[in-house]
Amino acid sequence: MKKTLFIFNILLCSFITAYCQGNNLWAFLSYASFNSPEGPYLETYLTVAGKSVQFVKIANGKYQATVNILMTFKKGGEIKAFKKYDLFSPEVEDTLHRDFNFVDQQRFLLQNGTYDFEIQLSDKSKTIPAIPYSQSITLDFPDGKPTFSSIQLIKSYSKAEVPGNLTKSGFDLVPYTFTFYPKDENKLIFYVELYNMEKLLGKDQKFILSYFIESQEANLKLNNYVKVKKEITKEVNPILTEISLENLASGNYNLVIEARNQQNELVTSTKLFFQRMNPKATMPLNEIQMTEIENTFAEKITQIDSLKEYISCTYPIATGIEKSFIRNSVKTVDMKTLQQFFYGFWTQRDATNPEQAWLTYKAAVYKVQVNFGTQVKKGYQTDRGRVYLEYGPPNTRSTQYYDPSNYPYEIWQYYTLNNSQRNKKFVFYLPDRATNDFFLLHSDAIGEINNQRWKIYLRNRIYTSSDIQDTQVIKSWGDFEEDYWALPN
């Protein structure tokens, strides 16, 4: 094989979630930045799957794997920090018992600024060379300005008997490298530090700290996952806490942390994207049936088939728990419960004029039906329709239906997305010319499918590659996909 490492970034700001494959080497990397009296520093958290590395017999008769790691931080082409070291797995009695992950944490003291971070991983017991992966990382802790550190996700924590590499604020924090919580992970534990509230408000002054979960699609705060408490200003305010995810439905979410003054004015905030898989979570019908709908627009919708369709078309903008109701309950519950759900859905999005919110969305649903509907799918069920409804119309829409080398495709560009992401793009393609159903192939937006081989897939019309590490294609006449992707915002 020509390459041994494939890493793709699918997440947000201070986290890289990486998938590394080199002859079955699997590793996941994240990072978080903090401030200290010595200056800003960055921590890296690396998880390696025991099944993916080669164990060899060592002197004591047991077996152990070794991963060679090189991390470098460059600024203006100059190396500012680096570490080259071996990561050793736990020792095992035999190579049949390696169904576990082992974790590495490193700390780098860096100044504020933007760095080119590069990591190389290779299995010491294999001869395949490592391929570097690079990522731009920014540390920004303004002097005297209230700022949160990155949010560090935690697997477990305990009181520190002796301070060590995992210790912060008197606790040993075992990192949780992923931002995906499967059904058997029912707690979201996190650690974050808040700096300089004392400099802004004064010593021993009260302020409001809140943390909550919001839907990633519509930034809707989930009322069952909100915690608000009063804090006292310190030089550093550490926060170590946990949120139960047992009843959180499958979906995309943000963990949001805010600091407000006593007038409830926002001082600073931070957020972190995560995903949850929890098929058993459902919306309790008794909660829906408490919604008052007398003399509302929802009560006036009396055709049950129309009401079911209206609810179904909200799926692209629904939260995880709402999606669960739409999937599992719309076909079985009675008319009034459907009316109550529908009214509650739009009231949550616009408490002052929910009917107008619905009518505006309904007009968008009609538009995607006209433009993206197919013979077998309604417009809102297609990938283009879903993206349009969730994020709105793109700022630019580049289309290429007759490229001699590629399948028909479109590249959509958004200058801003969800008021927090900038210059995000979506690649749709049509591998089957018999329909008008363009599939989402790749996006650099948070929570969307990220496929670094998207150019290969486009070119599959005339070319294919058996090397799963390949991400580039040979430039040919009539190619515009790189130009469209590179459009500035």
Provide the descriptors you would attach to this structure in a database record.
489 residues; alpha+beta; Immunoglobulin-like; 4 domains; 5-stranded mixed beta sheet; 9 helices; disordered N terminus
Written overview of the protein:
The protein is α+β, with helices and mostly antiparallel strands and 489 residues long. It folds into four domains: 140 residues, Sandwich (Immunoglobulin-like); 140 residues, Immunoglobulin-like (Sandwich), CATH 2.60.40; 100 residues, no CATH class; 92 residues, no CATH class. Helices cover 17% and strands 36% of the residues. Strands 10, 11, 12, 13, 15 and 18 form a six-stranded antiparallel beta sheet that branches. It has a five-stranded mixed beta sheet with strand order 14-20-19-16-17, with no helix packed on it. A hairpin with a 5-residue loop joins strand 19 and strand 20. Helix 3 runs parallel beside helix 5 and helix 6 packs antiparallel against helix 7. The protein is globular and about 75 Å long. It starts with 26 loop residues before the first strand and ends with a helix. The N terminus is likely disordered.
